[in-house]
Each structure stands twice: as structure tokens, then as C-alpha cells.
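Please fill in the sequence for the structure shown.

STRUCTURE ENCODING:
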């Protein structure tokens, strides 16, 4: 079994979401769908109830920071009790688009971490141009999880691992010009690596120009095996064990 630990394969992102989920099941791939707002969280819950190979991560994303209400928080609080929910995500901070609402983004992120603690769940974290703030916040709280599509340095990755975090590796590891991520990969312990696609985004080099799907995990696994000079089967075995351990699957 392989676990795609982070993706968005639901109708508001992909017209053929259910077809992809079925194809993934045929290929022994489990999928952790990540919601980002009330409507995508609802889609994630529906699909995880319908398909055995789909698990749910629910959360409110940084882009929702300005409009969040108390009702939204209590809705999420009640949804997190669902049996198929294995994490709070996708959550985090992103200063790439704007830093104007940094305080609100951080406040929302901390609220999400609070819910994860309340429900004893790990978090799936997005961080873009905000790695230090992300680290400072996670360090303050007793919480574990994954840094999805991590693009920082190897040194920083090791600091996150010390906090109990796992490093999500996706399509960018295959991108020709992304030497930085391959260098980082060699500096971290494979026992703290997860594989993910972030479908429909971040398509691997081999499928450039197409929408990404969980079926493309094989290219990511192949690249990790090549870079670390180990068998692909070994990469699958270890990263699947890592995901099962973190998400209690
Ligand atoms: Zn995502």
C-alpha cells in the first residue's frame, strides 16, 4: 500500500475526482484528502464516507483568515469527531500572496492547532515564505504532524523533525531545476519522510502540463529512491509505515 498524504481530489478541484479515487484504489493507493474551507471540508467528508481508501483531513486555510466566524469553528469542531478524520489540515501560514493579515493568519493557525489538540489529531501544515513563524508557533504547542510539500533547508527540516514533525515530499522533488529540495532530502532521516502529490497541483516533471493525480506518486517515489540510492520498494515500505504511525491509520 502507498499513502498519498496530501491532496485535493474532490469535485470543486477536479471533475473526475471519483474516477481518480477508484483508479487509486485499484493501484493500492490510499488518499488523505485535505479540505481548506467549509465547503471543501464537506466534500472531503462525503468522499471519505463513500470510499474505503479515502481518509479525511479537515481544516481552514490561511486564505480564510479574514472571514472566519465562531460558527465555522464550532462546525469544524463537530466534524472532527467523524471516524474517517485522521488529521487537522490543510492549515498554516502563507506570506507569498500577502503579509498584510499576518496576525490573522497566525491567529487562525493557532485556533486550528487548538482543535487538533482537543481531538488528539496531528496537523497537516502549509507554509510558504513563512517558515520561521510556522516553526515558532509549532514549537510553542504540544502537537505533531507533517510539513506538506516542504521547501525549506535541510537544517530547518531537522528542527521540525525534532518537534515530532514529518517532511512531505511531492512533485517538486522531480522538477529539473529544483536542486534545493533534492539536497534537503539527503540531509534528513527517511524515517521522517512522507510522500504526497498535492493533486491537482504540483505535477511531477514526467507529466508536466497535466493535472496531477495520486497515480503520479510513482514518479516521486522513483526520484526519492534514486536520490537516496535505495530500492523503490523500500521507499514505499518506510514512507507508508511513517504515514500509518503519524496518522494512526
Ligand atoms: Zn494542499
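FILLED IN BY: designer on duty
SEQUENCE:
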Amino acid at each position: 500500500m502507498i499513502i498519498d498524504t496530501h491532496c485535493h481530489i474532490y469535485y470543486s478541484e477536479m471533475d473526475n475526482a471519483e474516477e481518480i479515487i477508484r483508479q487509486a484504489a485499484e493501484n493500492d493507493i490510499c488518499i488523505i484528502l485535505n479540505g481548506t474551507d467549509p465547503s471543501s471540508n464537506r466534500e472531503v467528508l462525503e468522499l471519505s464516507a463513500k470510499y474505503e481508501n479515502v481518509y479525511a483531513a479537515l481544516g481552514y486555510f490561511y486564505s480564510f483568515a479574514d472571514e472566519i466566524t465562531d460558527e465555522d469553528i464550532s462546525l469544524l469542531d463537530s466534524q472532527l469527531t467523524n471516524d474517517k478524520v485522521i488529521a487537522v489540515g490543510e492549515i498554516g501560514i502563507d506570506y507569498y500572496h500577502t503579509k498584510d493579515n499576518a496576525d490573522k493568519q497566525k491567529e487562525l493557525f493557532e485556533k486550528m492547532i487548538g482543535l487538533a489538540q482537543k481531538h488528539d489529531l496531528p496537523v497537516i501544515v502549509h507554509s510558504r515564505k513563512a517558515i520561521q513563524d510556522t516553526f515558532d508557533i509549532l514549537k510553542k504547542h504540544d502537537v505533531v504532524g507533517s510539513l506538506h510539500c516542504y521547501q525549506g533547508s535541510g537544517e530547518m527540516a531537522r528542527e521540525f523533525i525534532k518537534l515530532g514533525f514529518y517532511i512531505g515530499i511531492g512533485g517538486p522533488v522531480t522538477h529539473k531545476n529544483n536542486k534545493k529540495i533534492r539536497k534537503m532530502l539527503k540531509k534528513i532521516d527517511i524515517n521522517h519522510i512522507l510522500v504526497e502529490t498535492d493533486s491537482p497541483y504540483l505535477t511531477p516533471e514526467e507529466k508536466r502540463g497535466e493535472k496531477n493525480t495520486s497515480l503520479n506518486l510513482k514518479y516521486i517515489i522513483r526520484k526519492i529512491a534514486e536520490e537516496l540510492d535505495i530500492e523503490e520498494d523500500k521507499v514505499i515500505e518506510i514512507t507508508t509505515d511513517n504515514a500509518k504511525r503519524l496518522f494512526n491509520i
